[in-house]
Specification:
The structure holds two protein chains of two kinds. Chain A is α/β, with parallel strands linked by helices. Chain A has helices at about 1-5, 15-20, 25-60, 70-115, 115-120, 125-130, 145-170, 175-195, 195-205, 205-220, 225-230, 235-285, 290-310, 315-335, 395-405, 425-430, 445-450, 460-470, 475, 500-515, 530-545, 560, 580-585, 590-600; strands at about 355-365, 375-380, 385-390, 410-415, 420, 435, 520-525, 550-555, 565-570, 575-580. Helices cover about 60% and strands about 10% of the residues of chain A. By secondary structure, chain B is an alpha/beta fold. Chain B has three domains: about 1-320, Up-down Bundle (ABC transporter transmembrane region fold); about 335-415 and about 500-595, P-loop containing nucleotide triphosphate hydrolases (Rossmann fold, 3-Layer(aba) Sandwich); about 425-500, no CATH class. Chain B contains 20 helices and ten strands. Classes of the chains: A alpha/beta, B alpha/beta. The complex binds adenosine-5'-triphosphate (2 copies) and magnesium ion (2 copies). One adenosine-5'-triphosphate (ATP) sits at the interface of chains B and A. Chain B: It is a multi-pass membrane protein.
Chain lengths: ~625, ~600
């Protein structure tokens, strides 16, 4: 895993590699940006040639009227440079955004296509992904787009040198090549200075990610209530400072070293420039070059030397390189995955719910010492409502993740009509089964879209129908902007829903998935935050909305569970009981025990079970 | 001016944290101003020297030009690197301040679009704030340079300094454009935020697993992309129209430069000056353009930083310095005597918005246990948050032993409340710490933590972990162990129970994710804890639940319906009442028989 997963050790991707990502901006835009950049480096030479001619005319004693054309050219070159610069700013920013949005989309496709969830949970991948999230790169607000466009600007440097070099060679043949060498020499030195930041960033990406994570815990909204009630600010801040100190020390050292190197190079640089100017002066004094041309030479030489130093955008390139490295790793892994599973879509939705079997399924989370499932044998009869019960941590949620194919069993098989889930076309199976997990997503999207994620292509009418089936429509209609209300505070007209209201949205997701052809529905604690009336109603609604789909229901509310066609108990990593409510109750096993415990609390004759004295 | 004041803030920090670097950076800036002029002067002297065959003058000119060129290019780079050092060091210090003060913001600020936007601005990486602000520093040397240029020009002809006037239109237009750009940036803030959050959701394993099914990832991607495209289009349009406007200003400046060069040509032709002056004037024109453009683009790039700095100032002004522990406010009683009283409490999340709570009159006697019941969305959690002091009532008041809640010393009151929220935090620390943060002074008291864990059935959760209480949880801070939904809730419960002498303990659906046995055990323990509080501090326990088995034990049961109290009383009273409570109770009871 280390070979492709680690980024710190490998060779950093080449800067030229960035140009390949620039293509996402589209040719027209890139040409426009490149033209702006090229124009800006060429125009000073044009202007120095014109100035040289002006001096020549002056020496000849010509009238102002005779040089108006030259004067206009000098003015136009000045204006041209400025206008190009003005245009370049928004065009470049636009191109950067275009590149970044295409790449963001690609990254999310890559993530979505991962065959299993443990691949996504891999810390290496999470470190890589963290680089793309805003703020991960502290220095620049730029992603790969910023680096790619900056590299494009760098690319414009080389052709831009040719014109002044040609002008110089036109005067004395070896001056052109000489200044080319000088300029490129300066350039290489300048590039050297900033190289190393990429390494540093990659090496400290985990610390950077941790620093950001601590910051989010402290200042983010998710944990803000507990931060305040338990007064955790200072404690968290100490941890955040520790993480920060680690990376800060390394970066400060590197930056200070950079200042020292640069100061050291000043003398070298000065010597070179003095040599150039004295050579020009010498040539002028010797009368080898006429006065008018001296002006041109000085202008062209200054432009070339200046270009050697012009590395202003080098830092966005440095910031982008680790991201490109991460992107390449992700692409490589995706390419390896390709072809492992059948890609063809076997028809559309299955006509009827499939028969699903767990054969002696064993499972342990990667890296965890203990196995969660020790040999689960279970058959899902098409169309049944199956309830799964068991204590906290028994593995119920895990079981459903295996069913959805989000993890691969470490032993045994999960089969659908005899075929292993891992051999089914991934996209197809992921449409056949839908799950509303215990920690279902609260997305910062409109109410309609929050339901629509269960069946992305569903139209508005379908979404509304599904919501109506579970009674979420009245709730949504009452929101400030109805179906378009964003379900998060912090947006104009956005609202936060209560826990139970969110669960209604989640139920609507399940209903929509069923409407849209999902054949197996998984509901993990769908009513934990609902009151008894809503809980009982929700059960009826889901059973009605599912059509013919098989339902797997997980709940600790045995009042709901008892209505299921069949109940299984998951205990110690195995299915220990299976049957109807009456059957299990009569059998007097774990289920009966749990049910009696919940039911006994309504026993009027024995109001509140006594509190053991010992705990006082 | 706002920008100068903000720059002052940054410079003050720089002087404190990295004075040497700051001095050098400023010095190099001033040297750079002279150097830029030196390039033109050197060129003039060299050309004039050559024209008059004056070797000494030509060589001096060449040397002046060379030194100036080296200073302005290499020196410029050194100055940039120095600024980077400043930005790194000072930025980190600013980030620390932002985090420190953000916890002192009232909870409601995190839900208000305006304040949230400011907080987001203040939270941009500090390095970006500082480096953006330092761009402004270049304005000083530029002013110097312009002044020197004008003096130089005036020595040739008194007309030439008029060139400066032709620069004014472009400067003025640029400033106006700045305001327009800021308005656009505010417009796109929500779009950018949404796109970012959706991208995060697509990458986070917890949400990605749901989005993998049903094509949700595609929808999330499309929506994010839509917002980003809109942002890009808006910014492009605004940027291009600004470029168009500014170009008109630069046309005036280019014309001015051309006229000045023509004037210099005339003078040189008349023999009043040497030919080098023509080069000097033309060169100064293009130098000025370059410098002004650099400043303007610097200003533009510093805009975001300045807005962030403004937000930084706002945050620091808004919140009291957390270090100077405020004992402002009435002392919190050691024991409750009367209890909590709510009079006419109403609450709306948004000003003028719908009232989520309305006309709540309730008195909770010291030492009692209260249960809140009601349908989803009836306002239970909102009431809980009000009692924890996370929001202030819109109308009416809440008093503790007769003292208004907001008059109490907030820190002290918080120290005497404890809570398990419905959306409790999943603190990904070491398991022991995840519980221990419930009572920070005792975070190292392993015995107390283990005891509390045992009381709510969290002990088995901790014991089964590979390294027990020292096991790192979650994956945010390294390769830790993940827990199940119910296991997380058990830890949250233990955390809430760790404080020993709370005056108010609120439990919002504390057993929603727990299994039957754990739920049963937990309520037993809560009843015990409530009894302890009752005796030790006469504290109040408030619990929100849909489980009547537990609600029944409460001394006082309050039924909320649509933000109002529908009924209140003991179990027996409410059953006799035959209202909503009796209805729901009957429903649940029947579900178990
Ligand atoms: N992503 C994960 N990585 C590693 N271990 C996990 C992960 N998710 C759960 N576990 C562990 O697997 C076991 C089973 O968890 P699971 O979520 O399946 O339980 P559950 O039966 O759904 O419990 P609950 O009723 O609390 O929801 C637990 O011990 C938990 O610690
Ligand atoms: N942060 C918020 N901003 C705006 N509106 C909110 C916010 N939190 C809740 N609401 C709204 O206030 C109302 C009451 O919500 P609250 O969370 O208090 O309900 P609840 O009684 O706790 O419900 P549940 O049983 O579902 O948890 C709901 O209509 C909800 O949409
Ligand atoms: Mg679970
Ligand atoms: Mg609630």
């Amino acid at each position: 895993m280390r070979d492709i997963g680690s980024g710190g050790g490998g060779r950093p991707p080449s800067r030229w590699r960035l140009l390949r990502e620039a293509r996402h901006a589209g040719p027209a835009l890139l040409i426009a940006v490149a033209a702006c950049q090229l124009g800006q480096v060429l125009l000073p030479t044009v202007s120095s040639v014109a100035l040289g001619m002006l001096v020549t005319r002056l020496v000849r004693g010509e009238e102002v009227g005779a040089v108006l054309g030259l004067l206009a050219a000098i003015g136009a070159a000045l204006l041209g440079q400025q206008v190009l610069q003005l245009l370049q700013v928004p065009l470049t920013a636009f191109a950067e955004r275009r590149v970044d949005l295409v790449l963001r989309a690609e990254i999310s496709v890559l993530v979505d296509a991962l065959p299993t969830l443990d691949r996504l949970e891999d810390p290496q991948l999470q470190d890589d992904l963290a680089q793309f999230r805003t703020g991960a790169i502290a220095w620049m607000n730029s992603g790969i787009g910023g680096g790619a466009l900056a590299q494009l600007g760098q690319a414009a440097y080389y052709p831009a040198l040719l014109l002044p070099a040609a002008v110089l060679s036109g005067i004395t043949w070896w001056w052109g090549p000489a200044l080319l060498l000088i300029s490129i020499g300066i350039r290489i030195g300048t590039e050297r200075e900033v190289i190393g930041f990429e390494r540093l960033q990659t090496a400290h990406r985990a610390a950077t990610r941790r620093t950001r994570a601590w910051g989010e815990l402290i200042a983010g909204r998710r944990d803000a209530k507990e931060v305040r009630v338990f007064a955790l600010g200072d404690w968290l801040l100490e941890r955040s400072d520790e993480a920060q100190a680690e990376r800060l020390a390394a970066f400060l050292a590197k930056r200070q070293a950079m200042v020292r190197t640069q100061a050291g190079r000043f003398a070298v640089c000065l010597a070179v420039v003095v040599a150039v100017e004295l050579t020009v002066a010498g040539a002028g004094l010797a009368g080898a070059v006429p006065l008018g041309r001296i002006a041109t030479v000085l202008g062209a030489a200054t432009a070339m030397i200046g270009a050697g130093f012009g590395l202003g955008s080098a830092l966005s390139i440095e910031a982008a390189l680790p991201m490109v490295g991460a992107l390449d790793r992700m692409r490589a892994r995706a390419a390896q995955d390709k072809g492992r599973r059948p890609a063809a879509l076997e028809g559309a939705a299955a006509a009827r719910p499939p028969r699903i079997r767990f054969h002696a399924v064993r499972f342990g989370y990667p890296g965890a010492p203990r196995e969660v499932l020790h040999g689960v044998d279970l058959e899902l009869v098409p169309g049944e409502v199956l309830a799964v019960v068991g204590v906290n941590g028994a593995g119920k949620t895990t079981l459903t993740k295996l069913l959805a194919g989000l993890y691969e069993p470490t032993g045994g098989r999960v089969t659908v009509e005899g075929t292993r889930v891992q051999e089914l076309p991934q996209t197809w199976w992921r449409r056949q089964v839908h799950a509303v997990f215990q920690d279902f997503a609260h997305l910062e999207m409109s109410a309609a879209d929050n339901i629509r994620i269960a069946a992305a292509e569903a139209g508005d009418a379908q979404v509304r129908r599904a919501a109506a089936l579970v009674g979420a429509d009245t709730l949504i209609d009452s929101l400030p902007h109805g179906w378009e209300t964003i379900l998060a505070r912090g947006y104009t007209g956005g609202v936060e829903l209560s826990g139970g209201q969110w669960q209604r949205i989640a139920l609507a997701r399940a209903a929509l998935a069923a409407e849209h052809g999902a054949r197996v529905l998984v509901l993990d604690e769908p009513t934990a935050n609902l009151d008894i009336r809503a809980e009982l109603a929700a059960y009826e609604q889901i059973v009605a909305a599912r059509g013919t789909a098989t339902v797997v229901l997980i709940s600790h509310r045995l009042s709901t569970v008892r209505k299921a066609d069949r109940i299984v108990v998951l205990d110690g990593g195995r299915i220990t009981e299976s049957g109807t409510h009456e059957h299990l109750l009569a059998a007097g096993g774990t289920y009966a025990e749990m049910f009696t415990l919940q039911a006994a609390q309504f026993d009027q004759t024995q109001p509140t079970p006594a509190v053991p004295e010992a705990t006082r | 001016m706002r920008n100068l004041r903000l720059l002052g803030v940054v410079l003050g920090l720089c002087r404190r944290i990295a004075p040497r670097q700051l001095t050098w950076s400023l010095l190099l800036g001033v040297l750079g101003a002279f150097a830029s002029l030196g390039i033109g002067v050197g060129m003039r002297d060299l050309v004039d020297g050559l024209a008059h065959h004056n070797t000494a003058a030509a060589v001096t000119g060449a040397l002046v030009g060379a030194v100036s060129l080296a200073l302005s290019s290499m020196g410029g780079r050194v100055a940039e690197s120095l600024n980077a050092v400043l930005a790194e060091a000072v930025g980190a210090a600013m980030e620390h301040q932002v985090l420190r003060h953000s916890t002192a913001l009232p909870y409601g600020a995190l839900e208000d679009p305006g304040q949230l936007h400011r907080l987001e601005q203040a939270r941009v990486p500090g390095i970006r704030m500082v480096s953006g602000a330092l761009l402004l520093l270049k304005v000083g040397p530029l002013g110097l340079q312009v002044l020197l240029s004008l003096i130089l020009l005036a020595r040739t002809s008194w007309w030439l300094p008029a060139l400066a006037l032709t620069a004014l239109p472009s400067l003025w237009l640029a400033r106006r454009g700045e305001r327009a750009m800021r308005a656009v940036r505010t417009q796109v803030a929500e779009d950018t935020r949404m796109a970012t959050r959706l991208f995060d959701a697509a990458l986070a394993p917890s949400s990605a697993k749901e989005l993998a099914l049903g094509g949700g990832a595609g929808l999330v991607r499309a929506r994010g992309e839509q917002r980003l495209r809109r942002t890009a289009d808006r910014m492009l349009r605004a940027g291009l129209s600004q470029a168009r406007r500014e170009s008109a200003g630069w046309l005036v400046f280019a014309a001015g430069c051309t006229a000045a060069t023509a004037l210099a040509y005339q003078l040189a032709r008349a023999g009043a000056t040497g030919p080098g002056t023509v080069l000097l004037v033309a060169g100064l024109g293009s130098q000025l353009r370059g410098q002004m453009a650099a400043i303007l683009s610097g200003l533009r790039r510093s805009l975001e930083a300045m807005d962030s700095l403004d937000a930084y100032r706002w945050l620091l002004d808004q919140t009291p310095d957390p270090a100077r522990r405020q004992t402002a406010g009435a002392p919190v009683p050691a024991r409750l005597t009367d209890g909590l009283t709510l009079t006419g409490v109403g609450f709306a999340y948004t000003p003028g918005g719908p009232k989520v709570l309305d006309g709540i009159d309730l008195s909770i006697p010291a030492g009692s246990t209260v249960a809140l019941v009601g349908e989803h969305g009836s306002g239970k959690t909102t009431l809980v948050k009000l009692l924890c002091g996370l929001y202030r009532p819109t109308t009416g008041s809440i008093t503790v032993d007769g003292i208004p809640l907001e008059d109490l010393d907030q820190a002290a009151w918080r120290g005497r409340t404890t809570a398990a929220f419905q959306d409790f935090s999943r603190w990904e620390f070491r398991a022991r710490q995840t519980i221990g943060v419930g009572d920070l002074p005792r975070i190292h008291d392993t015995a107390a933590i283990a005891r509390t864990a045992a009381r709510v059935g969290a002990a088995p959760v901790v014991d089964q972990l590979p390294h027990g209480g020292e096991t790192q949880l979650g994956t945010t801070f390294g390769n830790g162990t993940e827990l199940s939904g119910g296991q997380w809730q058990k830890l949250a419960l233990a955390r809430a129970l760790l404080r020993e002498r709370p005056l108010l303990a609120v439990l919002d659906e504390p057993t929603a994710a727990l299994d039957a046995a754990a739920e049963h055990a937990v309520y037993q323990q809560y009843a015990a804890a409530a009894r302890t509080y009752r005796h030790s501090t006469r504290g109040i326990t408030l619990l929100v639940s849909h489980r009547f088995s537990t609600i029944r034990m409460a001394d006082l049961i309050v039924v909320l319906d649509g933000g109002r109290i529908a009924e209140a009383g003991s179990h027996a009273e409410l059953m006799a009442n035959g209202g909503l409570y009796a209805d729901l109770y009957g429903l649940q009871e029947r579900a178990y028989t």
